[in-house]
Amino acid sequence: MPVAIDHYLFLSLALFSIGVVGVLTRRNVIVMLMSIELILNAVNINLVAFSRYWGTVDGQIFAIFIITDAAAEAAVGLGIILAFFRNRETVLADEMDMMRW
Amino acid sequence: MDSVLFYFFSALAIASAVLMVTRRNIVHSAVFLITALLATAGIFLQLQAEFLFVVQIILYVGGIMVLFVFVIMLVNLDLSLHLMQFNRMKFVSTILAAVLAGQLFTAFWITRNSLNLGPRGEAMAQPHNTESIAQALFQNYMLPFEIASILLLVAMIGAVVMAKRKV
User: Fold this and answer.
1) Domain that includes residue A46, residue range
2) Total structural domains in chain A?
3) Which of B117, B120, B132, B149 to mutate to test the interface with A (most CBs of A within 10 A)?
4) A85: chain B residues, CB-CB within 8 Å
5) Running DSSP on this structure, what letter comes out for residue A4?
6) pTM score, two decimals?
7) Alpha carbon of A100: minimum distance to chain B alpha carbons (Å)
């Protein structure tokens, strides 16, 4: 018996909400970035589920582009975190309050 | 069998996502995120998206998460384990996120029977998943594909510039 598409939507909603809570409540920037990865994954589940139920691969193509974006975002974000850590010796989001020093 | 796999991977994904957000040790968070991503890969496989299954494992788990773990090892402070892990607005933020989730849930719940997606439930057979993805990617989506490569180049240069000691 195949799974109805609503179940994928609800799974994606749950993962998305957990990711939003992670971004909003954690102080550690690395955990915030990981929560963003989780949100992007929730989106991917939606796209692939709709792609399956329409019988085309367009949704999977979009998912590939989203994975590409996630890789780029992780690379640049972690570079920023490294540069910040080198100067301030912390990775807490509420310590990030200046543009230059 | 299909739904058993789906519920197994969903429970795994949601449980490890919750653990990822709530753990104090950041390395544990990373490991639980890897579990969540692997469970998502299982859901892709259950949706018969074999190519994305492999891409998810190789790129996310093998690439992005290794990057995360490297940065955690470079940055990890024993000091930060004893600090407060959640910020001061955590209750407000959690309530706001719950309201957002409730709105989306209500919207999905009301419209769940009006999602009329053609021959729903019948396995839309895509016998050559990788082949059809390649055809779509190199015919209909050629320009976005090239733009994505430029994006990756820009991200690579940006990461190198950011992580360098002296600009």
Assistant:
1) 28-90
2) 1
3) B117
4) 74-75
5) P
6) 0.88
7) 14
- Model confidence at B11, pLDDT cuts 50, 70, 90, reads very high
Number of other residues whose CB lies within 10 A of the CB of residue B13? 28
ipTM of the complex as predicted: 0.90
Q: Which residues of A touch B74 (CB under 8 A)?
A: 82, 85
Look at residue A8 and tell me if it is in a domain.
no
Q: Which of A30, A40, A85, A86 to mutate to test the interface with B (most CBs of B within 10 A)?
A: A30
Residue A83 resides in a domain: yes
A41 in a structural domain: yes
pLDDT digits (tens, 9 = 90+) for B121-161: 445 555 677 888 888 889 889 999 999 999 999 999 998 88
Give me the residue from B30, B63, B136 closest to A61, CB to CB. B136
Q: What angle, 0 to 180 degrees and rounded to 10, lies between the N-to-C axes of helices B26-46 and A5-25?
A: 160
pLDDT tens digit sequence for B51-63: 999 999 999 899 8
Domain CATH code at residue A59 = 1.10.287.3510
Contact residues for A62 (Cβ-Cβ < 8 A; gap 6+): A47
Give a yes or no: residue A82 inside a domain: yes
